[in-house]
């Protein structure tokens, strides 16, 4: 490992863990004092380098470790400049040295400083670290701990169900537990018939559980981003729907018609914590979720207090259609503050909600503003009558009744509208244009 950018103070800074990532902006997954490791697959220009370094600095991470050989043969000059400009330490690692070797050194240092010299405890920690590197589950590692130390263990973390060894109900566990708090709403308990007193080993085990959970969250987050890239490509017609089939099968959704839902950005983690049988795709602008039916969507939105939009049921070859529908219904859902389904797309108002405001301004300028101009006498009355006429399906008599006018007065006012703007409200096609114009006018004036 060679230092490229760094002061003596940087080199003395403690490193809590080595976090590997290829994201340009990994800050949602970073924590204080982590060494951020990357082979630089996303660091292809000055902008991406600057954005990456800014994310590392903003997260309070210890610095950047660039692995050479896979993408870059030497540190990109743009990366070096960005690190110097923002005072972020940068080291490079030779080709062939795995990033996990850094974690091995960190854990080894922690163990030397914090653990007892017990052969049993040392052997247990070695086994746990091997399990950590192999991606074992928290439940599997706790089984290993119980096998060596005896008793039963419970690990609790935010948004995660309790993992217990031997699948026992907590009420049936014997002995007075010892407990270590690992963070907010995160703890590890050890139930043992003889009430063991060695809390230090429990704290060390708890830190391994924390690391395992963090590594799992990172893997899951990166997987959601990869699926999100597939969704974006398929939605844009740049990839075939068959590319999603393996992911759909892994999610247990094969063989059924699917509902595509779209959710606000940055909601992937709470959705993933709540939904266990779903395919979640995380993109920069929106989170897509693939489920077996719309009822799951409504329940999830209600429980998490989120708005979302969802599609009609689609088969796998129709995924692109489902993505488009979900995007459109999310747009409506955000504006209405509630869940929106495909039925909400089949109205003129819903169609107009999806249009950029600038596209509708000509309707207002050409068909409404001339009526309310100060030069037009009684223009406000003309607009009121026109609005009522459109609201009641183009019925002259109903408009007259609602406004307490003679039907000839209604005819006269609509005739004046036609003279002023050059479009006839009595013509069905022109009525559609007037409806669009009034809708856009109301939106622009905050009605």
Automatic annotation (TrEMBL):
Residues 5-108 form the Purine catabolism PurC-like domain. Residues 382-438 form the PucR C-terminal helix-turn-helix domain. It holds the Pfam family PucR. PANTHER family: CARBOHYDRATE DIACID REGULATOR, DNA-BINDING TRANSCRIPTIONAL ACTIVATOR ADER. This is PucR family transcriptional regulator. It comes from Cryobacterium ruanii.
């Amino acid at each position: 490992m060679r230092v490229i950018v760094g002061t003596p103070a940087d080199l003395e800074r403690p490193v809590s863990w080595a976090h590997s990532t290829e994201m340009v902006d990994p800050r949602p997954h970073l924590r204080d004092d982590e060494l951020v490791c990357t082979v630089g697959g996303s660091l292809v220009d000055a902008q991406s380098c600057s954005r990456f370094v800014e994310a590392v600095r903003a997260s309070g991470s210890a610095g950047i470790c660039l692995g050479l050989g896979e993408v870059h043969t030497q540190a990109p000059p743009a990366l070096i400049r960005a690190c110097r400009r923002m005072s972020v330490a940068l080291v490079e690692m030779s080709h062939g040295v795995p990033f996990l070797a850094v974690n091995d050194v960190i854990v080894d240092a922690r163990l030397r400083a914090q653990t007892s010299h017990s052969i049993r405890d040392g052997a247990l920690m070695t086994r746990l670290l091997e399990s950590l590197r192999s991606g074992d589950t928290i439940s599997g590692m706790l089984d290993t701990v119980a096998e060596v130390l005896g008793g039963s263990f419970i690990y609790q973390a935010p948004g995660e169900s309790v993992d217990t060894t031997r699948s026992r109900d907590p009420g049936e566990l014997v002995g007075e537990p010892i407990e270590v708090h690992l963070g907010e709403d995160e703890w590890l308990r050890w139930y043992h018939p003889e009430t063991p007193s060695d809390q230090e080993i429990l704290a060390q085990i708890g830190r391994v559980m924390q690391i395992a959970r963090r590594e799992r969250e990172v893997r899951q987050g990166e997987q959601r981003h990869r699926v999100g890239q597939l969704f974006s490509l398929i939605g844009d017609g740049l990839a075939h729907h068959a590319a999603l089939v393996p992911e759909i099968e892994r999610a247990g959704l094969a063989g059924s018609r699917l509902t595509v839902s779209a959710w606000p950005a940055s909601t992937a983690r709470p959705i993933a914590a709540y939904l266990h049988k779903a395919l979640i795709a995380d993109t920069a602008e929106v989170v897509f979720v693939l489920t077996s039916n719309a009822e799951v969507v409504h329940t999830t939105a209600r429980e998490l207090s989120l708005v979302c939009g969802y599609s009609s049921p689609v088969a796998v070859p129709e995924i692109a259609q489902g993505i488009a529908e979900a995007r459109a219904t999310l747009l409506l859902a955000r504006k209405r503050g509630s869940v929106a389904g495909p039925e909400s797309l089949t109205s003129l108002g819903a169609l107009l909600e999806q249009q950029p405001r600038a596209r509708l301004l000509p309707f207002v300028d050409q068909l409404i503003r001339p009526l309310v101009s100060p030069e037009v006498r009684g223009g406000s009355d003309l607009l009121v009558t026109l609005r009522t006429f459109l609201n009641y399906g183009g019925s002259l008599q109903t408009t007259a009744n609602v406004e307490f006018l003679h039907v000839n007065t209604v005819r006269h006012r609509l005739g004046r509208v036609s003279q002023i703007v050059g479009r006839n409200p009595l013509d069905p096609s022109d009525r559609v244009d007037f409806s669009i114009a009034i809708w856009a006018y109301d939106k622009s004036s905050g009605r």
